[in-house]
Design brief:
The structure holds 2 protein chains of 2 kinds. By secondary structure, chain A is an alpha/beta fold. Chain A is built from 7 helices and 6 strands, in the order αβαβαβααβαβαβ. Classes of the chains: A alpha/beta, B alpha/beta. At the A-B interface, β2, α3 and α5 of A face α3, α5 and α8 of B.
Amino acid sequence: MVTGSALKAKRIVEELKKCGITHVVWLPDTEARFMYDTLINEKDIKLVQVCREGETVAIAAGLYVGGKEPCVLIQNTGFLESGDSIRGLAIDIHLPLLIIIGYRGWKRVGNITDSAAIYIEPILDAWGIKHYLVETDADAHNISIAHKEAHETKRPVAVLIGREYQ
Amino acid sequence: MNTREALGIIGEHRTNEVVVTTMSAFLLWPAYTKVPTLDLPLTGCMSKASSLALGVALAQPRRRVMVLDGDGSLLMNLGSLVTIANQAPPNLIHFVFENGVYQNAGGQPIPGAGKIGFAGLASAAGYRKTYDFDDLEGFKISLDRILKADGPTFVCLKVRSKEESIPYSLGATGLAFQKVKETMAKAV
């Protein structure tokens, strides 16, 4: 099992800054909560908190049209909730969007039993959304890779935050 | 008033604002806009026009952003009222055309038709200013003042729906996004 301290918020924020991210549009979740204190105190990145995950992609699309560089941070359950927004406002309009997804139910070892974890990767694959796993600080560079790919392909690209919890 | 009349008034007052349209306004606005390079028509978005407009307003704080929303549309994204009020962009004006029906789906009544107070919802969510209009003259007289005040502002326009026939079509949202992005980038 990879311990929770293996992936630090500071390291993720470093990658977001490298990508030039100006806004993180999010709804807090269990896997991403460790980032809150770091993000809220980060001067170069603004947090835009929503009431429901489907709002995030639309807000990000508006920020992008207005010349900013947003990313979205939601749980896999929230990704499923946001399905039509991702279809209509990210894929269809060719939005180069970094979507960071809390991988609820992820396990490196053993059977995954949470359906939110079971279905997320097959659904991302079905929609043609490339995805990268980030479990530790050593994987954090995948955020920059995903962001670059989003811009090169003009499509959303996902990063799955695989932080196991008891 | 009907939707076309209200759009005509908005079109007369609009200068360099970004205008996000959806539902009936999405279909009718092209006849009234004088600045199509700053129009963002949104279709097939499951009610996210208000959220999109919030993003533009946050990105472009010196430019006013109008969203021309529907009542059924807003009901589907009601949490956006709180999200918008929490961000409190002073440059956002949120119009809702309240006709009480799903016009584009065949005229079925929306849940709570005639019972909901949309402006009350927006006020309770924390919008700075909210308005209700059911007559064209009152709206016409007030709009200039509304547009000059700091928001976020919510304007509910109670429009008649029965006599309005609006042909449905899908728009070119993606092309409009690129065009508006380029227009605003040039203006900076």
